[in-house]
Amino acid sequence: MGSLQLKSIRKAFGTHEVLKGIDLDVKDGEFVIFVGPSGCGKSTLLRVIAGLEDATSGSIRIDGQEVAAVPPAKRGIAMVFQSYALYPHLTVKDNMGLGLKQAGTEKAEIDRRVAKASSMLALDPYLARRPAELSGGQRQRVAIGRAIVREPKLFLFDEPLSNLDAALRVQTRLEIAGLHRRLKATMIYVTHDQVEAMTLADKIVVLNAGAIEQIGSPMDLYNKPANIFVAGFIGSPQMNFIPAGKLGDTEAKTIGIRPEHIALSRESGDWKGKVIHVEHLGADTIVYLETEATGLLTVRLFGEHAYKPDDVVFATPDKASQHRFDTGDRAIA
Amino acid sequence: MSKARSAPLRTALIHLALIAYTLVALFPVFLTLVNSFKSRNAIFREPMALPTPSTFSLVGYETVLNQGDFVGYFQNSLIVTVASIALVLLTGAMAAFALSEYRFRGNTLMGLYLALGIMIPIRLGTVAILQGMVAAGLVNTLTSLILVYTAQGLPLAIFILSEFMRTVSDDLKNAGRIDGLSEYAIFFRLVLPLVRPAMATVAVFTMIPIWNDLWFPLILAPGEDTKTVTLGVQMFIGQFVTNWNAVLSALSLAILPVMVLYVIFSRQLIRGITSGAVK
Q1: Which fold has domain A240-325?
Q2: What are the structural domain ranges in chain B?
Q3: Which tens digit of pLDDT belongs to each residue from B199-226?
Q4: Which of A15, A26, B110, B159 makes an SS bond possible with A4, Cβ 3.0 to 4.6 Å?
Q5: Domain at B59-277: CATH architecture
Q6: pTM score, whole prediction
Q7: Cβ atoms of residues A14 and A33 within 8 Å
């Protein structure tokens, strides 16, 4: 249970088209992440799946059943929101149990499911508290617990980690990954953070301006981006894009090289340049340099390196790992 | 205020201004209260003086309680005010929710139309309202007053509440929808508690003009059974002789219920503000 098919989903607000025909197949138990810059329509798509927005056209099937006319509460979904969206007047326990209570589930069954979810999320000591008495991380766990209690076919996450601080974000990310392994449930997750996408997803859907740019596993997107947009969006620091003409490649329009696929040397190499800025991150050193052949270049070196601004260096790209793009910005295989 | 951000002179001036304003605002109330406890001669001889044993008199209050049915007038005023506030809050909040929550054709136009009432005083339509009430057989009923006051209070209520309701998180309402709450449950159980401070504000702004109104009771419900306090007081004001003791006593008494209502609402107001602050 828990598959999802989207067929040519379109959504327009007035004349402004937000989703321009989305086709997607999600298999049972998959962890799918929608990722893209803000305004790309990823949240709208999630709302359409949840039934909080109506699609202008297209079909949505959950478990093979068309749900366009089914209200959100009856779609067998649960949603976790960025702002937690806990009911301020209810205790943690009642927050988690409300959906079941509305559906007319027996009290004993509600208690059993709430107890199970709260022990899974280590929320037992807080069951009698109200949301105002909880920290941000605890509130987000309650919101996740509220979703688990419903035992949905489909979990929907709308940027659930955006309001947490960095340390808590990593911890909650691990919890969500663990949850997916344990529940083996289908999860759809929206984020603008490519690190979350890379670390959590079985399958990433890259969206841009209301259309799907590429669907694939994290490593597919990293190693074989279908176009310049995906190549630039996945990977940090961003891929270097060099006009192909400058490198004597007449077939391609743009050459892309990831910062980690460039070697630096003080003595010799392909491109001579000057260091502009260095960022020491401990495990990595990011070097920005200006070369005559390529213009601005970002290089990521592993470990610590003693480069300083104004140093003269030589950069050598790993030819095997370079990406070539044609005039339509599509990758040349 | 922290020490670093306050200058003593500045603080003193601010307090001076606030104290001055408080005195100005309280002075008429003070004058009314003080003189209501004095004999008629004392009121005219020294209007500013406090009642002394020789000038102290309860004759005003005795007149008020013996002449006319003041308990009945109070009851009328209370019924009209409370019912109008309740109707304004309920229907105003529902209209505001519809305007702020749902996208439908003519939403903005409807909002503007409803806000128009803030700019156009309802008294301009008195003649038409009277004709309407006569036709509906509602003259000399409290219902007529309640209907008119509800109409009078709605524009401001809708305007304030719809602005507030826009600030209620969409995620919260959507979470309710996914948990299977009906739109009514979302409105009553999720949205209304969060806009309670705004409701209290609207209640206070709606209450005062209704309680103090003389115009519509005089025109729509002047009968003995439906007189409100402000109308009842008029019987002590004559063309040639005015019974000031009675007028001042009646007005002093009239302050009390409205004060109680105000205290109730302002506590709501403060509770709403603080619960938001420590969230």
Answers
A1: OB fold (Dihydrolipoamide Acetyltransferase, E2P) (2.40.50)
A2: 59-277
A3: 988 888 888 899 989 999 999 998 888 9
A4: A26
A5: Orthogonal Bundle (1.10)
A6: 0.81
A7: no
